[in-house]
Design a protein that fits this description.
The chain has 400 residues and is an alpha/beta fold. Helices cover 37% and strands 15% of the residues. The chain has a seven-stranded mixed sheet, with helices on both faces. Helix 4 runs parallel beside helix 5, helix 4 crosses helix 8 and helix 9 packs across helix 12. 46% of the residues are buried.
Length: 400
């Protein structure tokens, strides 16, 4: 790589070129069989992805948003319920909560991991809620509505701290749906069980997105739900197919949320390479960590002892984020911001009455985070150039 070559934020071309014969064969198979929706391709992918996640069942759906929505509905979330999640995530998480008929509410994040702060979740349940004597469920004091579910987000490819979240969920009779849309293959060490657990195997269900830029990405829109509950899996299969238990027999009103056979076939090919791609991301992250370790003013990602992340994104924090992003862009280095405006401050949720200052950690880091180039094919020379430009920017003191 020359010093003038552009460094992309994400490379979606190279892996597809490398796998072109296998991917093209899937396309020809779909054309020759006319198996466009459902069928063996979807079923085979569901079995393989369930095994990859150490889960009993996988239900392929049309998107990660559908995955969160169907999981909440199948788990028993009712219209008018409150579902808590974090304000530092993509809006699809809260869209799915709203589409399930519930009201999203927020728990601030941990400043090191950027995932749900367990102490804040505990305080929310203890101070903002009271326990209903008949149901044993927490009710929000202000909204007078039951809090029935929690959606921890495995942000940037690292699992949330699941042991204490699951313990609080058990104590307060809460449904847990993991938002694992960025965490394909991430692992969490459960001290309670004394073993490593895969993202997608710990809650009542888990949602995955296969949007093209994910660690496991389709060539279009796709998603999946994993669960160890056979009953939930049956309900979600009905929900995704217009509520049909069999053709033209509608047990409930459902949705058009099926996974296309073509996308399932393409995902099956890519799934065979996912472990290796994740390993290369981990190696790239380790190189970044080493190169940034002695650089003042740059906060690299924090990895707890209980975490084996898969680095969907590599996110640093600096005081002058916008200035650094501009300097890198001038050097032909693409970056991203995930996410610049917390959900509670989005115009879409202004009727909920949230105000600036409600979730201070999320609001603080939203001004400082910058996602650096990260993908399996990222070369050390490119990373050295990225870090060199960050060092040059830091040398004038603007990051301190």
């Amino acid at each position: 790589m020359s010093l003038t070559d552009k460094i992309p934020f994400l490379d979606l071309v190279t892996p597809h070129m490398e796998l072109e014969p296998e991917l093209t064969a899937v396309f020809h198979k779909v054309l020759s069989t006319a198996g466009f929706v459902g069928g063996p391709m979807v079923e085979n992918f569901e079995k393989a992805f369930a095994a990859f996640c150490d889960a009993k069942n996988c239900v392929g759906v049309a998107s990660g948003t559908d995955a969160v929505r169907f999981a909440l509905t199948a788990a028993g979330v009712q219209p008018g319920d409150i579902v808590v999640t974090v304000p530092h995530t993509f809006i699809a998480t809260t869209e799915a909560i709203s589409q399930a008929g519930a009201r999203p509410d927020f728990i601030d994040i941990d400043e090191r991991t950027y995932s749900m702060d367990v102490a804040n979740l505990r305080e929310y349940l203890e101070r903002e809620c009271y326990l209903d004597r008949e149901t044993g469920k927490p009710y929000h004091r202000k909204f007078r509505a039951p809090v029935t579910a929690v959606v921890p987000v495995h942000i940037y490819g690292q699992c949330a701290d699941m042991d204490p979240i699951l313990e609080l969920a058990r104590r307060y009779n809460l449904i847990v749906v993991e938002d694992a849309c960025q965490a394909h293959g991430a692992e969490y060490f459960s001290q309670k069980e004394n073993r490593w657990r895969k993202a997608g195997s710990m809650g009542h269900a888990a949602a995955f997105s296969f949007y093209p830029g994910k660690n496991l990405g389709a060539c279009g829109e796709a998603g999946a739900i994993t669960t160890n509950s056979d009953a939930m899996a049956r309900t979600m299969r009905i929900l995704r197919d217009h509520g049909q238990s069999k053709k033209y027999y509608h047990d409930m009103e459902g949705y058009n949320g099926r996974l296309d056979s073509l996308q399932a076939g393409l995902l099956s090919v890519k799934l065979q390479h996912l472990a290796e791609w994740n390993r290369k991301r981990q190696e790239a992250a380790a190189r970044y960590d080493k190169m940034l370790a002695s650089l003042d003013g740059v906060v690299a990602p924090y990895q707890p002892t209980w975490s084996r992340p898969v680095h969907h994104l590599y996110v640093v924090r600096v005081s002058d984020r916008d200035g650094l992003q501009k300097r890198l862009a001038e050097a032909k280095i693409d970056t991203g911001i995930h996410y610049p405006i917390p959900l509670h401050l989005q115009k879409a949720y202004e009727t909920f009455g949230f105000r600036k200052g409600d979730f201070p950690v999320t609001e603080k880091i939203a001004l400082e985070i910058l996602s650096l180039p990260m993908y399996p094919q990222l070369q050390p020379a490119a990373q050295e150039r990225v870090v060199q430009k960050i060092q040059e920017f830091a040398s004038v003191g603007v990051l301190r």
